[in-house]
Amino acid sequence: MSDRVYIFDTTLRDGEQSPGASMNTAEKLRLATQLEKLGVDILEAGFPAASEGDFEAVSEIAKKLKTTVVAGLARANKGDIDKAWGAVQHAVKPRIHTFIATSDIHLKYKLKMNRDEVVKAAVEAVRYAKGFTDNVEFSAEDGSRSDRDFLCKIFGAAIEAGAIVLNLPDTVGYAIPSEFAEMVRYVIEHTPNMHKAILSVHCHNDLGLATANTLAAIHAGARQAEVTINGIGERAGNTSLEEVVMALHTRQNYIPFSTGIRTEFIYPTSRQVSRITGIVVQPNKAIVGANAFAHEAGIHQDGVLKNPMTYEIMKPETIGLSANKLVLGKHSGRHALRDRLKDMGYDLSDEELKLVFDKFKELADKKKHVMDEDLEAIVAEGILRSAEVFRLEYLHVSSGTSVMPMASVELSINGRKVRGAEWGNGPIDAAYNAIAKLVGTTSELMRFAISAITGGTDALGEVTVRLKENGLTALGKGSDADIITASAKAYINGLNRLEYLKEHPVTATPQMV
Ligand code: KIV
Ligand code: ZN
């Protein structure tokens, strides 16, 4: 059996199912380009039947990527498969990924089908997809809670119909590593013609075991791992790409398998995903968390100074975490900025660089040292935000110990300038009231968090908000040296994302059949 493990990234599909993590086409394209640079083998770009927006994003990604397999998800029906093919057909290497649930509980309550009917639907779907491309993957949704012999039967039938990858998902994050490994071994041993296909696993993190289950499955013979950056995804998330890849990389002596991932792009990719989705990486997150390489205890620091390997099992540089975090200042030129951004994973066009450079100079005038985190914020503000309906043009607040806080705001709404002023309990409340009135939003502010991007009183303030309107949720992020402006930008970013969701309604999700 080969020792190569294929990395199937589903950040743009299952990852996007994280609450509030919707991305627009431009953002998905940028991330897809970064994921190709990272070296993922297969990129699941979306679920084209879910919405017009998903279809468009998958098509654009398929046209853009040069070396990566681009997969589109489809339920086991002709309509979904037509849509998936319609979107991925432009790819250099297209894949159709079709699925149907196989557990008795899903059959009885969700599908209302018996096992024979499910096998028939799976076979028909794979055959139909095979009419478009040889690269067809079949997934048995809720596989980990399915009867093992039924799994072997449906996988065998899917191989006969032409599937080249069989995916065994732990859809609800229920499996335990030793049990999952045993299941993988059983399926590999008992599925007819398994040698003609690759077994894949796709785990969710409901019990915090997604990475452990994925590694156990690889050890037991699985050769494709379905993962997301930062482990984002439905509910508690999916298996995290960086954890699986770095576990394989670090523990070659125990699990001697390789991937095609260029590990030095892990950290920049993690940062981009966090920036674009607005989902903050928890500080103690393995590999990419802010504290992942920080040694607090004196005894550890002493050891690390004598020999880093006393307490460090990985080098920060391996994942692209630069030791030299202090980068540029007001005398730095455009070239230095471009080089630094390139190291951070941002390949900007001349036009984009100009925009970022102007903002960088503005910040460098206020702040002596411009750090990587500041640059990320500038890129996010200037480049990653696209498709804006609302834009902040002007903000003035007055507040203090003995004045009623008031905000005057000018917005451009689809290019038309509007102005207004409102009172509030504090300056942020006043700014939000003024913006809400101008936009006419009925959204509710579910969460508001503010933090400093770097240390010091001159640090950029970063604000994250979660907005909800008519069942839609969106995250918004904003940063600025002024925290009231950062708050206004975050609110407006959230409102823009809500607008995008309204214009691109999701008509189906993978859990609906
Ligand atoms: O979790 C799951 O079962 C899925 C499938 C659609 C592969 O995401
Ligand atoms: Zn999933």
Report on this model:
It is a single chain. By secondary structure, the chain is α/β, with parallel strands linked by helices. It folds into two domains: 6-277, TIM Barrel, CATH 3.20.20; 390-503, Double Stranded RNA Binding Domain (2-Layer Sandwich). The chain contains 16 helices and 16 strands. The strands form four sheets. An eight-stranded parallel barrel has the order 1-2-3-4-5-6-7-8, surrounded by seven helices. Helix 8 (210-219) crosses helix 9 and helix 13 crosses helix 14 (372-384). The two termini are 35 Å apart. The model has no long low-confidence stretch (mean pLDDT 92). Bound molecules: 3-methyl-2-oxobutanoic acid and zinc ion (ZN).
Name its key features.
TIM Barrel; 16 helices; Double Stranded RNA Binding Domain; 513 residues; eight-stranded parallel β-barrel; three-stranded antiparallel sheet
Topology readout:
Layout: E1 6-9, H1 25-38, E2 42-46, H2 52-64, E3 69-75, H3 78-88, E4 93-101, H4 104-111, H5 115-130, E5 136-141, H6 148-161, E6 165-170, H7 177-190, E7 198-203, H8 210-219, E8 224-227, H9 241-250, H10 266-277, H11 298-306, E9 326-328, H12 334-343, H13 350-366, E10 370-371, H14 372-384, E11 390-398, E12 406-413, E13 416-423, H15 427-439, E14 444-452, E15 461-469, E16 472-480, H16 483-503
Parallel strand pairs: 1-2, 1-8, 2-3, 3-4, 4-5, 5-6, 6-7, 7-8
Antiparallel strand pairs: 9-10, 11-12, 12-13, 14-15, 15-16
The protein binds 3-methyl-2-oxobutanoic acid and zinc ion (ZN).
Concise summary:
It is built from 16 helices and 16 strands. The protein has helices at 25-38, 52-64, 78-88, 104-111, 115-130, 148-161, 177-190, 210-219, 241-250, 266-277, 298-306, 334-343, 350-366, 372-384, 427-439, 483-503, and strands at residues 6-9, 42-46, 69-75, 93-101, 136-141, 165-170, 198-203, 224-227, 326-328, 370-371, 390-398, 406-413, 416-423, 444-452, 461-469, 472-480.
